[in-house]
Amino acid sequence: MSENTASAKAKSKLKAEESKTSRSSAKQTNAVKPSLNLAELREVAELVNEYGFTDFEFENENIRVRLSKMTAAPIMQTVQPMAAVQSAPAAQPASEAKTESASAQASAPAEDLYQITSPIVGTFYRSPSPDKESYVKEGSRVSPETTVCIVEAMKLMNEIQAEVSGEVVKIYVENGQPVEFGQPLFGIRK
Amino acid sequence: MNFTILRFDTLESTNTEALNQAKKGAAEGLCVVADRQTSGRGRHGRVWVSEKNAGLYFSLILQPQTEMRFLPLITLMSAVAVFETLKNIGLNPDIKWVNDIHISGRKICGILAETTETAKGLAVVVGIGINLKSSNFPPEISEIATSVEAELGKICDREIVLEKLTHFLQIYYEILTGENGAEKIRSEWIARSSYAFGKSVKVSLENETIFGTTCGIEENGALRVETETGEIHVINAGDVENLRPQI
Fold first, then answer.
1. What is the per-residue pLDDT across A75-112, written as a single tens digit (0 to 9) for each?
2. Is residue B78 within 8 Å of B84, Cβ to Cβ?
3. Helix, strand or coil, per DSSP, at residue B27
4. What's this model's pTM, rounded to 2 decimal places?
5. Which residues of A touch B46 (CB under 8 A)?
6. Are the C-beta atoms of residues A79 and A50 closer than 8 Å to each other?
């Protein structure tokens, strides 16, 4: 389950212009003036593994590399640095582990959560329409492409994506409330 | 921008199809047109009645390089383009904030825009539904909706409406994405909407209702409404109704 992964992102934006080489896989790295050769890639993969990350992304003007490791949720929780203190034992089933760490979070406000913020002034909606289920709830697992909410402005429905992998532990805004640019919407434990 | 038109007999929703096309890498300017929609939708999943050949059901993919704060002006720009399309075929439209097109207080067109992330960056899909015929309106909307046929007294060919619509979308989209585009589109919108200033309105928000008089729009297209106590509310989402119906 790739969404059950911690994530490490490194983005080098040396040039504002984005590379035309879209989403290069490891195979394609030898193609257009790579900034990483295969040996270096291997080294990065080993480092990523060593530090317990399960997702790694690197991007500069020439190349974009994404490494993702499939792993089970409980194992991930034990190696995740931020949740280390309160995380559930590795032997626990995934669902219990989730509840445990979510409640532990409530008494640990100091935890450094990744915040998904609003890119625009508008109105916050947790579901695509009032009769539909919320996109995510507290405890939901998200991957970077997961849609977490809609921010409506002038009948433009802006689909907001998580942009990171992790677990939703905080929802800061009520459904239907106005939001400002940059206002935190969700807290994600990566 | 080059327009490419993809035609379908039946779709759930032209917006849904256009969003899928955008995710698959479709270029800016791709238009999706269907003879009929089985789940045509408006704001908050409201149904847009889409009987076969009774309307123009249209969605356009855009990939604007606009500042994010001005992105919502795409829906005002679209309203201006539809206004010009309908005026060009002999009608006398009005824009109800933010992008409903009305004729004599009845809705003839609705616009709903949605964004999605694609490999090429953010894409905006603008969905436009124009009522061409009234014959298939269900009773609950026949009092509040109208059509080109009802207003013009004759049928107007869908292809003519489509051609004019793409023509005006091209013109106003170029204005929006050009120099001082945001400011120009605001002016174009204000010049065509009776809702811009001095309109008595009721605004239904998610958790409250506001009564007041309109007093212009903000730089992103949000409506300014002044209440009796002199308080100014800035509305970026909500249903706005005219308190004194115009005849």
1. 332 223 333 333 333 333 333 333 334 433 444 445 78
2. no
3. coil
4. 0.74
5. 129
6. no
Asked if A121 lies within 8 A of B112 by C-beta distance, the reply is: no
- What pLDDT does B91 receive? 98
Please name the amino acid found at residue B197: F
Bond prior to B98 in cis (omega within 30° of 0): yes
Mean pLDDT within B87-104: 97
pLDDT at B142 > cutoff 50? yes
pLDDT at residue B200 greater than cutoff 70: yes
Determine contact, residues A172/A185, Cβ cutoff 8 Å.
Answer: yes
Q: Chain A residues within 8 A (CB-CB) of chain B?
A: 18, 22-23, 119-123, 128-132, 145, 152-159, 161, 175-178, 181
Note the pLDDT of residue B191.
98
Reported as a pLDDT band with limits 50, 70 and 90, residue B147 is very high
Give how far A131 is from chain B: nearest CA, Å. 8
Fold topology of B197-242: SH3 type barrels. (2.30.30)
Q: Which CATH class is domain B4-192?
A: alpha beta
Closest-CA distance, B206 to chain A, in angstroms, reads: 5
Closest approach of B21 to chain A, Cα-based (Å): 16
Tokens 């921010």 belong to A151
Q: Is the pLDDT of residue B28 over 70?
A: yes
CB contact under 8 Å between B68 and A119, yes or no, is yes
- Which residues of chain B neighbour A130 with C-beta distances below 8 Å? 44-45
Cα A122 to the chain's mean position, in Å?
23
Domain-by-domain residue ranges, chain B?
4-192, 197-242
Nearest partner of B131 among B207, B74, B183, B53, judged by Cα: B53
| pLDDT tens figures, B157-189 | 999 999 999 999 999 999 999 999 999 999 999
Give the pLDDT confidence score for residue A112 in this predicted structure.
87
**CB < 8 Å to A122, chain B:** 72, 236-237
- Determine, for residues A156 and B113 on separate chains, whether the beta-carbon distance falls below 8 Å: yes
Q: How many CB atoms lie within 10 A of CB B152?
A: 15
Q: In Å, how far is A74's CA from the nearest CA of chain B?
A: 30
ipTM: 0.94
Only one residue has tokens 């490791």, namely A69
Using CB atoms, pick whichever of A23, A123, A128 lies closest to residue B236: A123
